[in-house]
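Suppose a classmate hands you a notebook page containing two proteins, each written out with its sequence and a corresponding row of structure tokens. How would you begin to make sense of it? This section walks through that situation. The first entry is reproduced here exactly as it would appear on such a page.
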Amino acid sequence: MSFLAPYASNEPARAEVDALPGATVLEFGANWCGICQAAEPVIADALAAHAGGAPLRHLRLEDGRGRPLGRSFGVKLWPTLVVLQDGREVARVVRPRQPADVALALAQLR
């Protein structure tokens, strides 16, 4: 089981995210969030299992009040993973409990 880097406090603009080519997972959460901490190994395991598939960009973004990117995606609960293909949302997972929850979303990528 691997663990992920902390949530980044700097976030890209929505226009930058919309222009990202290929497969991207935006993970919204907070470093102090207990639910995010509990989901971390689940997310890490699912991403590691997907490593043999198409290249995947994973951005862990700190979310909260005053954070426009999370609001633009309608994020209300943490962690929320938004799966994008060429800047367009193809799947979403809110508070995953098992790697299969994330794997189902990643299966939507081409």
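The notebook's second entry, a different protein, reads as follows.
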Amino acid sequence: MSDSHDGSAGGNGFHPAGAPATQWDAELQRREMVERQLRKRGIRDERVLAAMLSVPRHEFVPAELAGEAYGDRPLPIGHGQTISQPFMVAAMAEALGLSGGERVLEIGAGSGYQAAVLSLLAREVHTVEMHEELAVASRERLRRLGYANVQVHVGDGTLGWPDEAPFEAIVVTAAAPEIPPPLTAQLAEGGRLIVPVGTPDEQRLLRAERRGNALSTQPLYHCRFVPLIGKFGWKPKSD
């Protein structure tokens, strides 16, 4: 993802909880990340900034990349996926306008990093991951790190998670050709939906809000995420 951004997903070989974050001070790195990459670029929601400062990003990347966890870029985390650039994670969270009482649906659990951030901003987070291996790893990691209000589900994220609908906020961490209709249907009245929409190579991050049967949309950023695969997304590439 460029200054833009990528979707996320997970992999194995992550830095173990409680172990030294190599030779650098992870808390200092997080503070610098928040000040230089987020606050100076216009992220103003103090709750979002506090959440980004709290979550140990180095726990959500492969161990060999732990020293790069707080850099201004996405990082590969296996299965052709990435952990999104810190600015994009913060920008998406801020655009949701969370006050703390919401039930949030995330499409694309990945390594669980964005779900961890959202869990500090909302009452409950449901995150859907299509790869069972990634979902299991994310579920274990979030539980181990103490993010108890996150539920990780396995499924086609373009279908949402109707068993727990409606949601006051929905965030999609991969690029869709259009807003998946099931997500619109599962959005509560007045709810906000954040999703990158466009071609596989370039998208606009959209903020949509539901008012009755209408969905008003606002473009936020040019971006580049990995493709959203599923019934209402892109088809997987053939071998």
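A careful reader of the second entry would note: The CA atoms of residues 10 and 134 lie 5 Å apart.
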